[in-house]
Design brief:
Layout lengths: L1 H16 L21 H24 L5 H39 L8 H45 L2 H4 L5 H40 L15 H20 L3 H24 L6 H49 L5 H18 L1 H26 L6 H7 L6
Helix pairs in contact: 1-2, 2-3, 3-4, 3-6, 3-10, 4-6, 6-10, 6-11, 7-9, 7-10, 7-11, 8-9, 8-11, 8-12
């Protein structure tokens, strides 16, 4: 955070002092792969490398551990590649204005656009797309290895304590299944949240700049930076709405895993012991499973109603706020495409919880299980929810 604060406060001045100044505010954006080779970008590469190596050196010296290269250098590489991927989206957004303006011009009766102009712009897009493809594949490959090392570290930690761990209910499931599911979810969810944050850093200034083309909003009227403020309001509204509506889901998902584990455990005991898994016991355990699933179905029903309504409204929200501007003919087709893309990027980033809520719920439940597992290893008191589920109390 200190490095980010320095970059956004005095970073440009430092870059300019070493001969790598930012682009002038009124300069046209660089179209194509040259976007990534401007002096401002070269200065960013140098700054990021220096900060990352300094950060890693500090932790290597004062807090060395077995996974330090993956934890520090690996995290820095993921952050950089994710930021670079977002910048690819910015480059494509910069490309949209000249391309769609050229299309609009070509369709007019007094066209000055040639086929060569359009082919050239398509070539620029292809070059950017190939850069995106390479970065995307490389990032996903590295993240997969990074996350598996995380799972390995968890697995090693638990197995070093296996004499104590093996006596805890569901130990084998938590060591194998929960760590596996935790790693699998983090592989996608972790990258997505980093991508959302990086997208905000990259597109909020773009959306703020594009607000100059929008004079007013429906019902609201003339306000400063209308696109910027509308995107923040709409996204925060959806995030808060879905968080409130889905507040019961994490606890129910957690209880669901517990009652399923208790049912499975009794059946496993019954394989080797004729006195276990008797019909009354199995019926009672399965009734807990059924009861919790029915509660989950009910709560997901109204959650999906609100989520679906919000996402459908989101499809037309950006067009709705642009109607006065479009009707007044104040923007070109290319600028419209830029605004819609930038608004969508910022809106989707703010709506991270909306789009990922069910996955986050599953991750929270797994985290609760592993936290309770580690508490049992260290003989620490368990959360109230652990006692509720273990005793078979109904989950509200």
């Amino acid at each position: 955070m200190i490095a980010v604060a320095i970059w956004y406060s005095v970073g440009e001045q430092i870059g300019a002092s070493i001969g790598l100044p930012p682009e002038a505010p009124d300069a046209d954006p660089v179209i194509g792969v040259g976007h990534f080779l401007t002096p401002a970008f070269v200065w960013f590469y140098i700054y990021y490398a220096a900060v990352s190596l300094s950060f890693a050196a500090f932790w290597f010296y004062f807090f060395p551990h077995h996974w330090q290269f993956w934890a520090n250098i690996g995290s820095s590489l993921i952050l950089f590649s994710t930021y670079f991927s977002v910048q690819v989206s910015v480059a494509i957004n910069n490309w949209r204005r000249p391309f769609f303006d050229s299309v609009q011009n070509a369709l007019s009766t007094e066209s000055t656009t040639t086929a060569a102009d359009l082919y050239s712009l398509i070539g620029d897009f292809a070059a950017i797309a190939f850069v995106w493809l390479f970065v995307y594949v490389a990032t996903r490959f590295f993240v997969s290895h990074y996350i598996f090392r995380w799972r390995t570290a968890m697995n090693d930690y638990y197995m070093e304590r296996w004499p104590r761990v093996r006596r805890i209910e569901g130990a084998s499931q938590r060591v194998q299944e929960d760590t596996m599911r935790f790693a699998t979810i983090m592989e996608g969810l972790g990258v997505n949240i980093v991508d959302s944050v990086m997208t905000l850093f990259a597109f909020l200034p773009v959306l703020f700049s594009l607000s100059q083309y929008v004079s007013e909003l429906p019902l609201v009227g003339d306000i400063p930076a209308p696109l910027f403020n509308a995107a923040i309001f709409w996204s925060l509204f959806g995030t808060v709405l879905l968080a409130v509506v889905g507040i019961k889901l994490p606890g129910l998902e957690f209880r669901n895993q517990r009652v399923e584990a208790a049912y499975r455990k009794e059946l496993v005991y019954g394989e080797d012991n004729a006195g276990r898994a008797q019909p009354p016991t199995v019926a009672e355990l399965f009734s807990h499973v059924r009861q919790n699933y029915f509660r989950l179905y009910f709560h997901y029903m109204y959650f999906n109603v609100f989520r679906g309504m919000y996402l459908q409204a989101d499809n037309i929200f950006s067009y709705l706020i642009l109607i006065p501007t479009i009707a007044a003919g104040k923007i070109t087709f290319g600028i419209l495409q830029q605004i819609l893309t930038a608004f969508g990027q910022v809106s989707n980033s703010f709506q991270y919880l909306v789009n990922s809520w069910t996955t986050i719920v599953e991750l929270i439940s797994i985290y609760k299980r592993l936290a309770a597992f580690e508490a049992a290893i260290e003989n620490l008191p368990l959360d109230t929810i652990e006692h509720e589920v273990a005793s078979g109390q109904p989950a509200e």
